[in-house]
Specification:
By secondary structure, the chain is α/β, with parallel strands linked by helices. It folds into two domains: 11-193 and 209-213, P-loop containing nucleotide triphosphate hydrolases (Rossmann fold); 224-323, Helicase, Ruva Protein, domain 3 (Orthogonal Bundle), CATH 1.10.8.80. Helices cover 47% and strands 16% of the residues. The chain has helices spanning 3-13, 15-25, 32-44, 58-68, 84-88, 122-134, 169-172, 186-198, 210-222, 227-241, 261-277, 285-296, 304-308, 313-323; strands spanning 47-51, 73-77, 89-94, 99-104, 111-115, 136-139, 142-145, 151-156, 175-180, 255-257, 301-302. A five-stranded parallel sheet has the order 2-5-8-1-9. The protein has a two-stranded antiparallel sheet with strand order 3-4. Helix 2 crosses helix 3 and helix 10 (227-241) packs across helix 11. The two termini are 23 Å apart.
């Protein structure tokens, strides 16, 4: 299929993106970047971690996305006393059949809102890890496949450290995107005040079916990516591992570890989804640059030296994007 045909196909298949975005805009005021990143996760089949102070509509955005699609939705409030059984389910004894039967937990849904994910202990994190990576759950000696599409959308509050458990690196790496939510602008905030004072809360209605999402994901993978773009992705990711070899020697003492191959895969998939949202059948360097901070910020380990100098992962990513040659 040539680029022109592919472009026409993408134009046709991506028509629902505008409908879905409009539906979410009914409820979410501003926060355009957050809505876009949630759509990228949905289209690229990648889990999304939202981090921001309380009150920035993280939970509301995820809830609105789930309600805009005619799919099963579960909200799990993570707490320090949560058990893996509360998440995945357990075996219960049935007096009627005189045997143990499986009672499935809330993780058996299309959309999982893991609220305040860093409040749950390690056992719960490992149970969620299997669900996120393998798309399956083991209860007793039985393994169950999770429904498709299956998406974990988690929220995290960066302010409180008391009663929280830092997410294991292995789990953080399972999230395709880590999105930092900023405060809304003045005009948006005025609109939020008006809506809340008047008590007028619009609601979303389902505009998509799960089958349409699965079909769109197949089309996203068809988006053309040139070898030059692939080289650009590997150059960026390798710059996080071996900065000296990519004219970034100053970053060497600041990075303790760089992005894994999963970073390269997710960068490519997120860029394809971004091009799809932009109604384009091919990936351009700007697509990579647009999704790069969200794909890499949780995959770069900082040294004590970086933390002492108040250097963040975002600063390192900016340096890399400014140095690596754009094709």
């Amino acid at each position: 299929m040539d680029i022109r045909e592919l472009n026409e196909k993408i134009q046709l298949e991506s028509a629902f993106v505008d409908i879905l975005t409009m539906e979410m805009k009914k409820v979410i005021v501003g926060q355009k970047d957050m809505v876009e990143k949630l759509l990228i996760g949905l289209l690229a089949n990648g889990h999304v971690l939202l981090e921001g102070v309380p009150g920035l509509a993280k939970t509301l955005a995820i809830k609105s996305l789930a309600k805009s699609i005619k799919a099963d939705y579960s909200r799990i409030q993570f707490t320090p006393d949560l058990l893996p059984a509360d998440l995945i389910g357990t075996m219960i004894y049935s007096q009627k059949s005189e045997e143990f039967v499986v009672k499935k937990g809330p993780v058996f849904a299309n959309f999982i809102l893991a609220d305040e994910i860093n409040r749950a202990p390690a056992k719960v994190q490992s149970a969620l890890l299997e669900a996120m990576q393998e798309r399956q759950v083991t209860i007793g000696d039985q393994t169950f496949a999770l429904p498709e599409p299956f998406l974990v959308l988690a929220t995290e509050n960066p302010l409180e450290q008391e009663g929280t458990y830092p997410l294991p690196e292995a789990q953080v790496d399972r999230f395709m995107l880590k999105v930092i939510i900023e405060y809304p602008g003045k005009e948006d905030e005025k609109l939020i005040i008006r809506q809340n004072v008047a008590g007028q809360f619009p609601t979303t209605t389902p505009v998509l079916k799960p089958a349409e999402i699965l079909k769109a994901r197949e089309v996203v993978r068809e988006v053309y990516m040139d070898e030059k773009i692939e080289n650009y992705i590997t150059d960026i990711v390798f710059s996080t591992r071996f900065p000296k070899e990519h004219k970034l020697a100053k970053l060497e003492p600041l990075i303790s570890y760089g992005g894994s191959p999963r970073a390269s895969i997710n960068l490519a998939l997120a860029a394809k989804a971004y091009a799809f949202i932009r109604r384009r059948g091919y990936v351009i360097p700007e697509d990579i640059r647009a999704v790069c901070p969200d794909v890499l910020r949780h995959r770069i380990g900082l040294t004590y030296e970086a933390e002492a100098e108040n250097i963040t992962a975002e600063d390192i990513i900016t340096d890399i994007l400014n140095t690596v040659e754009v094709p």
